[in-house]
Amino acid sequence: MTLIDERDYYETVDRIIYRDELADWLPDRIFDVHTHAWLPEHCLRPISEERVGLVFEAESVSFEQLEEAYELLFPGKTVEYLVFGMPLTVIDREANNAYIAGEIDNRRVHGLYVPALDDDAEALWARIRAGRFAGFKPYLSYVTWKDLEAIRVIDYVTEAQLEVAHAHGLIIMLHVPRNTRLADPETLRDLEWIAARYPRANVILAHGGRAYSADLIERALKVVAHLPNMYFDLSNVQSHDVIAAILAAMPPGRVMYGSDLPVATVRGYLFMLNGQRVTITRKPFPWSISSAQPGQLRCTFMGYEQIRATKRACQSLGWDAAGVRALFYDIARALVDRALTYLA
Known about the structure:
The protein is an alpha/beta fold. The protein has one domain: TIM Barrel, CATH 3.20.20. It is about 40% helix and about 15% strand. The protein contains 11 helices and 10 strands. It has helices at about 5-20, 65-75, 95-105, 120-130, 155, 160-170, 185-195, 215-225, 240-250, 300-315, 320-340, and strands at about 30-35, 80-85, 110, 135, 170-175, 200-205, 230-235, 255, 270-275, 275-280. It starts with 6 loop residues before the first helix and ends in a 5-residue tail after the last helix.
């Protein structure tokens, strides 16, 4: 199974957008700091049974599918990436972690470990070393005893994870909770506590902190921009206003590209409407708005919409090619390299 279907449509619509709008603007080398892989045999139950809302249709994503997707999304480019499993309760976490570890070469392919909430620091450090991981991908889905809107960052980013990350300069890829997203007061307090107590833990706020509207991100940036170990990836952010706000507020070297594959291959557009996330898609899904007749909407990949928005934001801020190259490659490459110094 491929992540990119409708190949005729790809040739006549998607690839033309890439050729005319994106190819010459993007650097030759791209580092994707946020992508997922898991196999059908890792699924304990259907992914649709997970209570966390998801914005993709894939039941699994193999490394072969990832490589094909990168070739089709970015023809003519060299892509390196940071990959982790699908951190859901319906997935066999350890089998998925082992699959990721088996593909890590720490040249093109780098990985994060999905931890259990009860892992102690000694066990976590042993698993990081054994798999040659660059850090952790904790996730809120494992906090099963709380309502989703009651979950806090410190419920699933444990002190054991933070101790190991701080001691060794590792990465923590953080998907913040709640519909109030990065601007949530408790979330911001938790991030301030992490920054003060574990300053060598490098926290990447995934999806621009899930603050997909300018008002949310601008409130959050008043705090986050002053926390020196906080970074952003821009995966799924399709608002140029949000991206411009992040790029303008954050110190140099703290924002990077991420795709969130398989989400990047969904043809559609994601935005905020009156405080709620809305997704329009070419194909109808239970979680999206689409046309009455499938295929009527002329949508391209959400990954391309994200890069379109990034390009517009960079141009509005007067960024040159060196700044774009840093955003799409240099910053992530350097951060991962620092996280892997323990292998030297």
